[in-house]
Write a structure and sequence with these properties.
By secondary structure, the chain is mainly alpha-helical. It is built from 9 helices and 5 strands, in the order H-H-H-H-E-H-H-E-E-E-E-H-H-H. Helix 3 packs across helix 9.
Length: 169
């Protein structure tokens, strides 16, 4: 089980071609079988990784925010929605909203200070529990070097699926 972000980043840099081949391999596999396998691996890996030792998602991701998310958190913070938006959000011309700062405003000592009220995208990350894994491979591999959970699930998935690697792990 690898949790060191520097080691994961170094390993990721050397495995780009292998991961490209693995994406194709997974896409050509039975989607429901892959979902069952990813779900099992996620249930095995996630409890062994302490996200507060890392916090890398909160330090590096831009999170899409819905109006419902913004309403909920602004109410929790007892802040008028307009003031909340001005302080914490950036709005695109098409109406999309994202947190206006990386790392996230609500991260302190690798912990979310609004954890029970966090945004939906934060609650779902790394999204390995969501069905149709094979349709989210681009996003999964975009976060492969960012998240120890994703990294370890993918590496175990390679083994479980008998994928031929480019070298040793």
């Amino acid at each position: 089980m690898e949790t060191d972000l520097e080691k994961i980043a170094l390993f990721s840099a050397t495995k780009q071609a292998e991961n490209d081949r693995f994406r194709i391999f997974v896409q050509e596999s039975d989607s429901e079988a892959v979902d069952r396998l990813v779900s099992r691996l996620n249930r095995s890996v996630t409890p062994r990784i302490n996200c507060t030792d890392c916090g890398n998602c909160c330090k590096s991701l831009m999170i899409l925010i819905s109006d419902e998310d913004a309403d909920h958190l602004s109410a929790h913070l007892q802040q008028p929605r307009a003031a909340f938006d001005a302080q914490y959000l950036e709005k695109g011309s098409n109406g999309t909203m994202i947190v206006n700062r990386i790392p996230c405003h609500f991260l302190a000592a690798n912990q979310c200070t609004v954890y029970e009220h966090r945004f939906a995208g934060c609650r779902e990350f790394p999204a390995l529990h969501i069905p149709q894994f094979t349709k989210r491979l681009f996003t999964t591999f975009m976060h492969y070097e960012r998240c120890p959970i994703i990294f370890n699930v993918v590496e175990e998935l390679k083994t479980e699926m008998d994928f031929v690697r480019d070298g040793s792990v």
